[in-house]
Each structure stands twice: as structure tokens, then as C-alpha cells.
Design a protein that fits this description.
11 strands, mainly beta, about 40% strand, eight-stranded antiparallel β-barrel, single chain, globular
Length: about 170
């Protein structure tokens, strides 16, 4: 499956009460530009390899997922070199799109990023981010989860900004 997505920092947090979400833990079993990952997402477990399609476009990757059962996941977990934890919220956007808002936990607490996946280049090109989206980081290597794993918010603050995303009562207020 080819991922075709844009990634953004979050300018202001939208209201999250009642928004569907799941907790995600992901760990990397190898280093390098295309590490092997295991993920627990809710009650689902998988092994993933993401492959670069074009080194000049970090927003498109070939993604290969292999389902794991719980036992397999926990057998592989001790082999992890680094990991991260986040809660992912699924927010509906215009045009039938979904914003996947990741609110990081633990050492990356304070970081919030949002991704939107597109079915084709035309819908991607036509996309206008909502006001609560911040800077587009799709082409910034530091922002990939594999590069964030094992880091702290302090480590990445120069890239992500020194402030945490503001909380507001309604989307788009500043």
C-alpha cells in the first residue's frame, strides 16, 4: 500500500471530548532510514516496514504491514531499540477526509501532530488545512515517528517550536 499523506504540527488543539481515538505504542527493531516497526494500536498488533519511494518526497512511502498476534508482539518487544507512545484521534474533515491527530505521551509530551491521507494527488493538491493545523512538516525528516522514537520534547523543540499546542474550546480560535 502506498501512503500519500501530509503532516502538520498543531497550532491549536481542537476539542477532543467524544472524538474516536485509540492508544498506540510503537517500537523500532532496527535503525536507519527505513527501520522495522512493531505497533500495538488498541487491540491490534502489527509489524511494519515503510520503504522510501522517492528520496525527494518524504510524504509518500510504500507501507508493508504484517498482522501479529498478541504473543508475537510481546515476543518481539524486548528487541526494540526505541519507541514512543501516543493517542490518535480521528477527526472528520471536509471532502470525506480524516485528520489523524497524534498527541504524544511520555518523553514527547507536548508534541501534537496531525496527518491527512489522500486517495490521489488531485485531492491532496486541492486540500486546504483547517485553521487549527500548524506548519506543514511533511518534508521534514525529523517529524517521522521513526525519528521521534527515543527522543524527548526537549530534543525536538527547536524543530517543533518551544511551546506546546494551545488548548481551545473550539477549533480555529487562536
Amino acid at each position: 500500500m502506498v501512503e500519500n499523506e501530509l503532516s502538520f504540527l498543531v497550532r491549536t488543539m481542537p476539542p477532543l471530548a467524544g472524538i474516536p481515538h485509540k492508544d498506540i505504542d510503537q517500537h523500532y527493531l532496527s535503525d536507519g532510514e527505513e527501520p522495522l516497526r512493531i505497533r500495538r494500536s488498541g487491540g491490534t498488533f502489527e509489524l511494519t516496514k515503510k520503504l522510501t519511494i522517492d528520496r525527494n518526497d518524504l510524504s509518500r512511502k510504500e507501507e508493508i504491514n504484517v498482522p501479529l498476534d498478541r504473543e508475537e508482539y510481546y515476543m518481539l518487544l524486548p528487541l526494540a531499540k526505541r519507541g514512543l507512545a501516543k493517542t490518535r484521534y480521528y477527526l472528520r474533515l471536509d471532502g470525506g477526509l480524516t485528520a489523524e491527530l497524534d498527541v504524544f505521551k511520555g518523553p514527547l509530551d507536548g508534541l501534537a501532530m496531525v496527518e491527512v491521507e489522500f486517495r490521489d494527488d488531485a485531492s491532496r493538491k486541492a486540500f486546504t488545512p483547517p485553521d487549527w493545523f500548524g506548519r506543514d512538516v511533511s518534508q521534514e525528516a525529523w517529524s517521522s515517528n521513526s525519528n521521534l522514537a527515543g527522543k524527548t520534547f526537549y530534543d525536538i523543540r527547536a524543530h517543533a517550536g518551544t511551546r506546546k499546542a494551545k488548548k481551545t474550546k473550539s477549533v480555529g480560535k487562536k
